[in-house]
Design brief:
Layout: H1 3-23, H2 28-34, E1 36-39, H3 47-54, E2 60-62, H4 67-80, E3 88-91, H5 104-108, H6 113-128, E4 134-135, H7 159-174, E5 187-191, H8 210-217, H9 219-226, E6 231-234, E7 238-239, E8 242-243, H10 248-258, E9 264-266, H11 274-278, H12 284-294, E10 299-300, H13 304-314, H14 320-336, H15 354-369, E11 371-375, E12 389-393, H16 419-427, E13 432-436, H17 450-459, E14 462-468, H18 489-497, E15 503-508, H19 516-519, E16 524-527, H20 535-543, E17 623-630, E18 634-636, E19 640-649, E20 655-665, E21 676-685, E22 690-698, E23 704-705, E24 711-712, E25 716-723, E26 731-737
Helix pairs in contact: 1-14, 2-13, 6-7, 6-15, 7-9, 10-12, 12-13, 15-20, 16-20, 17-18
The structure holds 1-deoxynojirimycin.
């Protein structure tokens, strides 16, 4: 064992001894207290809470971010309770704290783990300065349904991308060492299958077969556990008839026994008591029993544990060893956080320059998150020198709150720089900027200002339309069945279009929207998600070519909502469609016979492709891929190999490209997706520059869960593609052969 590992093992042993020593002194009430997470949230400590802390009936508090109050809560717990156990202080620090980073889905569009890590580090520093030591992030539910409002919080549709970025995010929160004052424990959520809720309707059931669960939905969680995430949260939804909070197979057997997760598991908000509402249990007592049996160590906001665990133990319906194991896990995390040594926060100890650093990270993250979906006739970038006037129109051009997106309890809209402000600052006297809001909100159906908008567009050299959806239209419990631009926005586009001048749409939204009705009406589309505090400067820099766009879609954009779920990594089916097999509903001969339309897997009115594919994103440069090769045509199982290709910047500006590697396993004992992302890298290239991009893989990277739910790498033929999106055409073939 290396000296570092020996050191680590000794450290854990030492913590284990301290945990055991403490546990042996705890009463049952104190143990159950550790399993209770209580809501504070009203900026003072009411008597009941203080009393509960003194009695050791609380293990953690959530939703208090005033450092003075947090310190006082800790003081009561540490100094006035019998055993002096400090508290975990939880908060939803989802994408920034005071400084707001792009929504997680936007961060995923950066395909940049280093940047995602820096963004989480900055958020952790700001939150820790307020006494928060635990965040309920990262959210790593694989989501293939843009109707679901929580897609905004997710890292997109792909398990590989979500795994890599989820690990980066949790490492950013937890820092190099959880014991540092600026580290916060991460919480990977929501375990598991929540991203697959039926109909994209929040809290609905998720029907995911175990093989799909393991090959897709559980992968980011396994990666998070392997990377040392401190805690996990169960999901509100059910899988296979059992709500996650009572799902022993998921929590105890897979997460704890099979994967060896050593941290603790928290329920979601009141989700223990909700087991009764699901219809799984008859009362809170049964709910508490089911949740503890499943392996849920801490109850978030709800009193089923406190009220019923004592009687369940007395009646012999629960074994005290289950309680001990839960408390052991919770104490372990508290020791790792260094709370026993230092329970208090000293806001002054945090570097005063952090705000500037956070803003710089927020700006870079926004910049790299924005995806150029379309750029006809290279209408972008705009030229400050050549443009005389610019019409800036739309309800989201100057909306400091809306650009922050969902889950921003602590975000400071006063820090926001809006696109309108940033455009003014960037163009100065060079360009006359004419602003018209045109719609009160994105949902407005009032078209009275549209004549003025059209006239303004007609008088200006170009128009930038700021469209999309407000923050309130995405996030938890904010799902939509129609995911097109709300209100009269499409009509606004059409009216402005009629003016005959170049039109650029910048779309701010918490999800992929269906854009088929406006895509051809505009010359360019920049998809900015909800870009956060520094969204304005990032958008302005891209519009005027100070920077080249480099974001890539972390999720497919459907043409119409009826295609959902549509994702690149689908199965082939026995009747796969191709460009020649698709017939459009408008072209069907009235006398067409039943079997005459091709008989393949597509929609008569939407075909089979998305409007914009996973991984897609244009640049002001252009990139040429060539010469894909694999280190050997035959790779013995158990060995490493590499796949590489040449990449050349054939454009005229320096730009970054996200190079993506996809693989297909042609034959499997369980059918394999038509493509799976295996690796990616951001590369920066000068005009004319050429590089070779090499990805190192191991045959283990080709493993999947087979019919018996074990990981296997099956010998056989594989295809590999390298390119700038999931539609990359440059392909090589190789075989995996049995070990030599
Ligand atoms: C409910 C949400 O599902 C979860 O993601 C969040 O962390 C908790 N509430 C706490 O606010």
């Amino acid at each position: 064992m290396s000296s570092i590992l020996v050191e680590k093992a000794r450290g854990t042993e030492h913590v284990d001894q301290r945990v055991d020593a403490l546990l042996s002194r705890m009463s049952l009430e104190e143990k159950i207290g550790q399993m209770s997470l209580v809501n504070a949230g009203d900026s003072y400590i009411h008597d009941d809470l203080a009393q509960a802390l003194r009695a050791g009936r609380v293990g953690g508090v959530l939703n208090e971010v005033d450092a003075r109050i947090v310190n006082e809560l800790q003081r009561i717990a540490v100094e006035e309770s019998r055993l002096g156990i400090p508290l975990v202080i939880g908060r939803d620090v989802i994408h920034g704290f005071r400084t707001v980073m792009p929504i997680p889905l936007g961060q995923a569009a950066t395909w940049n783990p280093d940047l995602v890590q820096q963004a989480a580090r900055a958020a952790a520093r700001e939150a820790a300065a307020c006494g928060v030591n635990w965040t309920f992030a990262p959210m790593i539910d694989v989501c293939r349904d843009p109707r679901w409002g929580r897609i905004a919080e997710s890292l997109g549709e792909d398990p590989c991308l979500a795994s890599i970025l989820g690990v980066a995010m949790l490492q950013g929160f937890q820092g190099p060492n959880l014991g540092r004052p600026d580290a916060v424990a991460a919480c990977a959520k929501h375990f598991a299958g929540y991203g697959a809720v039926e109909g994209g309707r929040d809290y609905a059931a998720a029907n995911v077969p175990e093989n799909e669960l393991r090959n897709v939905h559980l992968r980011p969680f396994k990666a998070a556990v392997d990377a040392g995430v401190a805690t996990l949260m169960t999901s509100f939804s059910e899988v296979d008839g059992v709500p996650a909070t009572a799902n022993e197979r998921l929590v105890r057997r897979i997460l704890k026994d099979e994967w060896g997760f050593g941290g603790f598991v928290v329920s979601d908000w009141d989700s223990v008591r909700q087991l009764g509402i699901h219809g799984l249990t008859a009362d809170d007592r049964e709910s508490a029993r089911e949740a503890v049996t499943a392996g849920v160590d801490m109850e978030m906001h709800g009193d089923a544990y406190a009220a019923h665990l004592p009687s369940l133990l007395r009646a012999g319906e629960l074994d005290e060893s289950l309680i001990d194991s839960a408390v052991r896990r919770i104490l372990h995390v508290k020791f790792r956080l260094g709370l026993f040594e230092n329970p208090y926060t000293k806001p002054d100890a945090f570097p005063p320059g952090a705000r500037e650093e956070s803003l710089a990270i927020a700006r870079e993250a926004a910049l790299q998150s924005i995806v150029l979906l379309r750029n006809e006739h290279r209408v972008l970038p705009l030229s400050r020198e050549k443009l005389g006037s610019l019409a800036v129109i739309g309800p989201l051009a100057d909306a400091p709150d809306e650009q922050l997106g969902t889950w921003v309890f602590d975000g400071d809209p006063g820090l926001s720089v809006t696109p309108l402000q940033a455009i003014h600052a960037l163009v100065g006297e060079h360009v006359e900027v004419r602003y018209l809001r045109a719609m009160e909100t994105c949902r407005s159906r009032d078209t009275r200002a549209f004549d003025e908008a059209a006239a303004l567009a007609g008088r200006s050299d170009a128009t930038v339309l700021f469209l999309g959806e407000e923050a309130i239209l995405s996030g938890e419990a904010h799902c939509r069945a129609d995911i097109s631009l709300p209100g009269a926005q499409a009509e606004l586009v059409a009216r402005v279009r009629q003016a005959g001048k170049p039109v650029i749409a910048v779309i701010l939204a918490g999800r992929p929207l269906t854009l088929a009705n406006i895509a051809d009406q505009v010359d360019a589309i920049l998809y900015a998600w909800h870009p956060g505090t520094m969204g304005g400067p990032a958008i302005a820099d891209l519009l005027f070519g100070i920077e080249s766009p480099s974001g890539k879609l972390p999720v497919s954009f459907p043409r119409m909502v009826g295609q959902v779920p549509i994702y690149y990594s689908h199965k082939n089916t026995g009747k796969p469609p191709g460009p020649d097999s698709v017939v459009h509903i408008d072209d069907i001969d009235p006398k067409a016979r039943q079997l005459s339309l091709g008989m393949t897997s597509f929609h008569l009115d939407a075909g089979y492709t998305p409007l914009f594919a996973f991984g897609h994103g244009l640049s002001y440069a252009s990139f040429e891929y060539s010469s894909i090769r694999v280190s050997s045509g035959e790779i013995p199982r158990g060995q490493s190999f590499h796949v590489c290709a040449d990449l050349r910047n054939t454009g005229e500006v320096r730009a970054e490209e996200v190079v993506q590697l996809y693989v297909r396993d042609l034959v499997g004992s369980v059918t394999r997706p038509v493509r799976e992302l295996k690796a990616f890298r951001r590369v920066s290239l000068d005009p004319g520059e050429q590089v070779t991009v090499e990805f190192r893989l191991h045959t283990d990277d080709l493993a999947f869960y087979g019919r018996d739910m074990r990981l296997v790498v099956e010998p056989g033929e594989f295809h590999a593609w390298i390119g700038g999106s999931s539609e990359a055409g440059l392909r090589a073939a190789f075989r995996v052969v049995p070990p030599a």
